[in-house]
Design a protein that fits this description.
The complex is a heterodimer of chains A (253) and B (307). By secondary structure, chain A is α/β, with parallel strands linked by helices. Chain A is built from six helices and 13 strands. The chains are: A alpha/beta (253), B alpha/beta (307). The complex binds flavin-adenine dinucleotide (2 copies).
C-alpha cells in the first residue's frame, strides 16, 4: 500500500507573527519557515507504517511556492521515498485555500492511487482545519479526523480520535483519509546522513494546470489586524492579597 | 435567506450552550432552522426552546447517532437547497463534518468565525490568534463554524416547531466503535465561568489532583496545557489552546503554565487572568491581571484552605 502525505510549509511555530502595516496579511518575508508540526507527525506515522511492513512507499506532496522544496526535502530526510511539488504561486504571501488544495490533492490521488492519505489536522498558519475533510469529500472516501491512534487491519483502519468529550474510536473502510492530532507520535529528527541521502531522492515538479484545477480563491482578505493586546497587570505578594483582589477589586469570586 | 444551523448532540443530549452561542452569532443572517441529526427526541425538543430558532429539523435516524462525518455531511447537502448559510459551533464534531459538506457543495468553509460583519464577510483569528483576518466570501452558499467563546448564548424561552426530515444515510464507509468520555460533575470547560488550568509545572498525574481540588473549591472547570496532556497528567479533552479548546471565562487561573503563544491562543480573551508560577520571567505574567510568583505546591494548598 502506498501512503500519501501532504505537507505544508508554514511560518515556524516559534516565530512571533507580525501583521503587515498595510493590513494585507502577515509578514512572511525573511522569517523562518518550517514544516507544519502536524504534518511532521503525519510523515512520521507513514514512515512507521512502512517500517512495520504495512506501507510499501511513502509519497509526500506540497502545494505552494518553489521554496516548499525545502519542506519536501525535510520529509525525504525523515524517510519518505519520493516527493511532488505543485508550484501554485510565486508569491510567499499567497496561500492556496483548502478547497483548491483538496482539488489538487484529489488529482494526485487519482494518479498515485494511495491506499491511505495522512494529513495534518490543521495548518498552524491559517488554522482552517479543513483540507483532509474536503479531500475525503471530493474522493467519496471515508474520513477519520484528529487521530491519536491508528491501527490498520486488512481493509479497515481503526482510529481513535480526540473529540471534545474525550476519545472516540471508529473503524473506517480503506482507502481513507486520516488527519493526525498531536499525540499520535513523536516525530523523529532527520540524521545528517539521511539529509544527504534525501538530496538524491526524486522530486517531481508540477503545476495546478497539470491537474486542471483552478486555484482562484473563494475568500478574499478584506483586512488583517493585530488582536487587541492585553496589558500585564500587577504582581501580588501573597495568597491573601490575591484572594482579596479577586473578591474586592475584580469581583470574580 | 435562511440559515441551517447544525446542532451538536453528545450521547443523545443537546450541547445547549454551544448551539445557543452559535445561534446568537448567525441569527442576524436570516431565519434560523436548527438541524438535529440522530434519534434523540429530547435533543430536538431542547433545541426547540432556543430563542430565535424558527424551527427545528429532526433527522430521526440511528445512522446519525454518533456524528459520523460521511452520513452527516450527506444529510446537510441534501437539505442545503434553501439556505444561504450553513453554520455550526466550532466543536470537534462540526469541524469534522462541515468542511466535508462544504467540499461536496463546492464552496469554502470559513472556520472559527469570531464576528459576523455581514452576510458575506466574517472575522476569524489566524496564526494562533496573533492576527485577526476579515474575509469576504464569493461563494453562493457560506459554510462556517463559529467560535462559541465570542458570543453570548441565546435564551431558552422559545417554542419552535419540530419537523421531521428524512434522508437515506449510507453507512458503509465508516462505523462507530466506542466513545471514551469521562463523566464529570464539574462545569463544562468551554462554558464554565471559572477555569483552573495546570501545566507541566504540576509535575505528575497525582499532583494534578491539587489543580482539581482548587477547581472544585471555586466551582470551576479544569483545563491543562499541551505539555500537561502530553505528559499524561490530564486527559486530552482538557487541553486549552490553539489546537485544543478556546475558553473565555470570567476568571482563568493558570498554574505552572509558562504562557506559550499556543496556550495563550486558547485563553487570552478571559476577563480576568491569574497566573501562579515560580519563574517571575514566565511570559504568562505578560497577560495576567494578577500574578503570584510562588511555588505552586505552597500556593495552591494555601489558596484551597483560605477560599
Ligand atoms: C498571508 C495570507 C494571505 C492570504 N491570502 C489569501 C488570498 O489572497 N486569498 C484568499 O482567498 N485567502 C487568502 N488567505 C487565506 C487562506 O487561503 C486560507 O485561509 C488557508 O488556506 C486556510 O487553510 P490552512 O492552510 O489552514 O489548511 P488546513 O485545512 O488547516 O490544513 C490541514 C492539512 O492539509 C494539508 N495541507 C494544507 N495546505 C497544504 C499545502 N499547501 N500543501 C500541502 N499540504 C497542505 C496539510 O496536511 C495540513 O496539515 C491568506 C492567508 C494568509 C495568512
Ligand atoms: C503545533 C503546536 C500546537 C500546540 N498547541 C498547544 C495548545 O493547544 N495548548 C497548549 O497549551 N500548548 C500547545 N502547544 C505547546 C506549547 O508550545 C507549549 O509547549 C506548552 O503550552 C507548554 O506547556 P506548559 O506551560 O505547561 O509547560 P512549560 O513551558 O514547561 O512551563 C512550565 C511552567 O511551570 C513553571 N513551574 C515549574 N514548577 C513550578 C512550581 N513548582 N511552581 C510554580 N510554577 C512552576 C515553570 O516556571 C514554567 O513556566 C502547541 C505546540 C505546537 C508546536
Amino acid at each position: 500500500m502506498k501512503v500519501l502525505v501532504p505537507v505544508k510549509r508554514v511560518i515556524d511555530y516559534n516565530v512571533k507573527v507580525r501583521v503587515k502595516a498595510d493590513g494585507s496579511g502577515v509578514d512572511l518575508a525573511n522569517v523562518k519557515m518550517s514544516m507544519n508540526p502536524f504534518d511532521e507527525i503525519a510523515v512520521e506515522e507513514a514512515i512507521r507504517l512502512k517500517e512495520k511492513g504495512i506501507a510499501t512507499e511513502v509519497v509526500v506532496v506540497s502545494i505552494g511556492v518553489k521554496q516548499a522544496q525545502e519542506t519536501l526535502r525535510t520529509a525525504l530526510a525523515m524517510g519518505a521515498d519520493r516527493a511532488i511539488l505543485i508550484e501554485a504561486t510565486a508569491d510567499v504571501h499567497t496561500d492556496i485555500e483548502p478547497l483548491a488544495v483538496a482539488k489538487l490533492l484529489a488529482g494526485v490521488v487519482k494518479e498515485e492511487a494511495p491506499g491511505l492519505v495522512l494529513c495534518g489536522k490543521q495548518a498552524i498558519d491559517n488554522d482552517m482545519n479543513a483540507t483532509g475533510q474536503m479531500l475525503s469529500a471530493l474522493l467519496g472516501w471515508s474520513q477519520a479526523t484528529f487521530a491519536s491512534e491508528l491501527a490498520i487491519e486488512g481493509d479497515t483502519a481503526k482510529v481513535t480520535r480526540e473529540v471534545d468529550g474525550g476519545l472516540q474510536t471508529i473503524a473506517v473502510k480503506m482507502p481513507a483519509i486520516v488527519t493526525v492530532d498531536l499525540r499520535l507520535n513523536e516525530p523523529r529528527y532527520a540524521s545528517l546522513p539521511n539529509i544527504m541521502k534525501a538530496k538524491a531522492k526524486p522530486l517531481a515538479a508540477k503545476t495546478p494546470a497539470d491537474y486542471g484545477v483552478d486555484v482562484a480563491p473563494r475568500l478574499s482578505v478584506v483586512k488583517t489586524v493585530e488582536p487587541a493586546g492585553r496589558k500585564a497587570g500587577v504582581k501580588v505578594g501573597s495568597i491573601d492579597e490575591l484572594i482579596a483582589k479577586l473578591k474586592d477589586e475584580a469581583g470574580v469570586i | 435567506m435562511a440559515v441551517l444551523l447544525l446542532a451538536d448532540v453528545n450521547d443523545g443530549a443537546l450541547a445547549t450552550d454551544a448551539v445557543a452561542k452559535a445561534l446568537s452569532a448567525v441569527k442576524g443572517l436570516g431565519e434560523v432552522h436548527i438541524l438535529v441529526a440522530g434519534t434523540s427526541a429530547a435533543a430536538a425538543a431542547e433545541a426547540a426552546k432556543l430563542d430565535g430558532a424558527a424551527k427545528v429539523l429532526h433527522a430521526d435516524d440511528a445512522a446519525y447517532d454518533h456524528g459520523m462525518a460521511e452520513a452527516t455531511a450527506a444529510l446537510i447537502v441534501s437539505l442545503a437547497g434553501g439556505y444561504s448559510h450553513i453554520a455550526a459551533a466550532a466543536t470537534a464534531f462540526s469541524k469534522n463534518v462541515l468542511p466535508r459538506a462544504a467540499a461536496l457543495l463546492d464552496v469554502m468553509v470559513i472556520s472559527d468565525v469570531t464576528a459576523v460583519v455581514d452576510a458575506d464577510t466574517f472575522e476569524r483569528p489566524i496564526y494562533a490568534g496573533n492576527a485577526i483576518q476579515t474575509v469576504k466570501s464569493s461563494d453562493a452558499k457560506k459554510v462556517l463554524t463559529v467560535r462559541t467563546a465570542s458570543f453570548n448564548a441565546a435564551a431558552t424561552s422559545g417554542s419552535a416547531a419540530v419537523e421531521k426530515v428524512s434522508a437515506t444515510a449510507d453507512a458503509s464507509l465508516s462505523k462507530w466503535v466506542e466513545d471514551k468520555v469521562a463523566a464529570s460533575d464539574r462545569p463544562e470547560l468551554t462554558s464554565a465561568g471559572i477555569v483552573v488550568s495546570g501545566g507541566r509545572g504540576v509535575g505528575s498525574q497525582s499532583d494534578f489532583a491539587l489543580i482539581e481540588k482548587l477547581a472544585d473549591k471555586l466551582g470551576a472547570a479544569v483545563g491543562a496545557s499541551r505539555a500537561a496532556v502530553d505528559s499524561g497528567y490530564a486527559p486530552n479533552d482538557w487541553q486549552v489552546g490553539q489546537t485544543g479548546k478556546v475558553v473565555a471565562p470570567t476568571l482563568y487561573v493558570a498554574v505552572g503554565i509558562s504562557g506559550a503563544i499556543q496556550h495563550l491562543a486558547g485563553m487570552k480573551d478571559s476577563k480576568v487572568i491569574v497566573a501562579i508560577n515560580k519563574d517571575e520571567e514566565a511570559p504568562i505574567f505578560q497577560v495576567a491581571d494578577y500574578g503570584l510568583v510562588a511555588d505552586l505546591f505552597n500556593a495552591v494548598p494555601e489558596m484551597i484552605e483560605k477560599l
